[in-house]
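Re: How this chain folds, sequence and tokenised backbone to follow

Filed under: protein folding, tokenised backbone structure, sequence and structure records.

Contents: The amino acid chain and a row of whole-number tokens, matched residue for residue.

Body of memo: The sequence and its backbone structure tokens, given next.
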Amino acid sequence: MANYSVEEINGIQLAYEKMLADIHPSVNDPQHLALIEKAYRYCLEKYDGKYLLSGKAYMLHLIEMARIAVVEVGLGYISVVGAFLHGITYKEGVSIEEIETLFGKTVAIIMDGFGKISALKTEKVAYNSDNFRVLFLSLIEDMRVVLLKVVHRVYDVRNQNDVDADRLGKYFHEIKYIYIPIVHRLGLYKIKAELEQMLMRYENPEMYAEIERKIQETQQAYQQTMDDFLEPIKRGLDIEADRAKRAGKCKFNYSIKWRMKSIASIYAKMKAQNVPFEEVYDLLAARVIINCAEKDEIECCWNVYSVISNLYEPNPDRLRDWITKPKASGYESLHTTVKYSDKLWIEVQIRSTRMDEIAETGQAAHYLYKGEKNTSEEWLMNVREVLENPALVSFENSYKRIAKVDKIFIFTPEGDLKQLPVGSTVLDFAYEIHTQVGETCNGAKVNGRVVPIRYVLSNGDKVEIITSKKQSPRADWLNCVVTEKAKNRIRRFLMEEQLKESELGKSMLNRRLKNWKIPVNEDVISLLVKEYKLENALQLYNQISTEEIDLADVKKLLEDRLAEKEAHQDKVTVELVTKKEEIQHAEECLSIGKDIDNVNYKLAKCCNPIPGDKVFGFVTNDGNLTLHRTNCPNAKSLQQRYGYRIINVKWNGVESGISQATIHIYGHDVMGLLGKITKVISEDLEVNMKNIVLNSDKEGYFDGKIVVQIPDVDSLEQLMNRLESIEGILEVTRIDE
């Protein structure tokens, strides 16, 4: 590579000195300038004889980037050094360690971050723009890295002959989806407008040229329109300024400028309003800039608004008050759109000199006006917060740095971006791609190097999963993953495998039980679960399938337990039969009443017998007696299965009590029926009624249920007869409930 000629060296030196003069208002500390000089000389040596695609010396590119960084973005001396060194580590093979030794740790951190985000694949950023923004922030420690990338792209669009066509297309793709949103959020509106203009010229050159031509054709006419529009505003503001001066408050002077909106903005309006250029109703914008004391800014801005709204009709839907509540970027301005003619609306921006400087230059100017030193780049402290939290109301909400995000972003071989928690492994990534990929994952290639499934991934890694048909999830995989998705998929696979084993174990057990002539029922399974101290039958079947439980042991256990149960049952049966014989020996038919001794009895809930009903006794396992009506729904079953427990009983001398009975009634739904029923029950017979429900149908019939407390069956029959005699009631029956 040939060295630069003397003429080229002189040209580079002149450009460097001009850059120093341009940045001098912000960067003038001798120590800082010495570090910049050192970086300049270092790069001049490293890049001696290196040219851009256009044939221009490469050093001129670095010098111009340094100028943009300070003058247009508001960065300081460290960023000038960074602009000179921004690609040297990977272009010229210089190590980060060497950069740190020569220029300090901060510059080394910036260069390392610049290299990381430069290596990212951005082909598919359109589908993951939000994730890419977070990825950018998570890869870097110093926000100057992102801002230097912005500076680089600004240079690229201004000097497109220095970039080959393929690379330029990639750069515009990044500008569209990454850098325009970033500069917008940071309030770098001049840079944003320029990038949008260049992007439209690149993507849609024909439309750009057409709108540009129409603007030129109408420029003179619009000049006259704006002169006519602004003249009464100027007169009104002069009067207001004079009045404020005489009143001794809100003193101000002003300047007014106007512009036609940018070509990119006009094209966006044409698409949004679905109209041609000629029908876009708000092509023009005027700006009133007030020079007044900072404490009077808001009052003065609203006074100007009052003057303009008195002259022209404002559109209330288009009022934007960013002076009371500034944008997250720190932007402050009062916007209104007023009607000048039937077809022409004009936007007017009202702001102070301070607000205008911040709007033009962004956050660097914001901190200058606060009295901060620009060379320290204090405003960078909040850049990350603004980029990570787009909903912030003001740039001044917080002055603490935001902690690094707890997510990492990983690329597939095709360039797709996947988001995972910090600490995620190759196996987490495999499951993030697809469950089947995760289940057959056998390792991966991370940035071209083969690693195991437990390997912990880092931000920006490119990962290619290696799979094997012989691989399947194991229980220890749960210790290899951190994402819930991966854990759930592994657990589900293991559960499905357990279910398969359980089905096999269940089939094995059922087959053996049949061979052993032992009944297959819930009692047997529950007995085994309890004996082996398991949680459920699933574990029992699984352990039988995996031979953790020997079926020979199961057979012996069941035979022993069933023998014990039969012996116990025989004992109970003997006791019951003995009890029955004792009772029947005392008297042929047991009398139930107040004089009965040594026999505990209760009334069966299935049929609710009351004194006077025909009943029989049933001896329970605990030796007590339960009384059932002879027509009880369960009577037949009890007599067939447990005839030896049945005892003949009869009522005898039972004290008056409160037995409960349920009556069903049916009939015509006539007026006053409910009153008649309750009168008979409660007043005439003085029976306690617990509940009554009557339901009518569309044909004029009703049916219902009445629950009463009754002393005996005779009283119940008397009540039923009285109810049946009520006009409208067709049927009265007793039901078991």
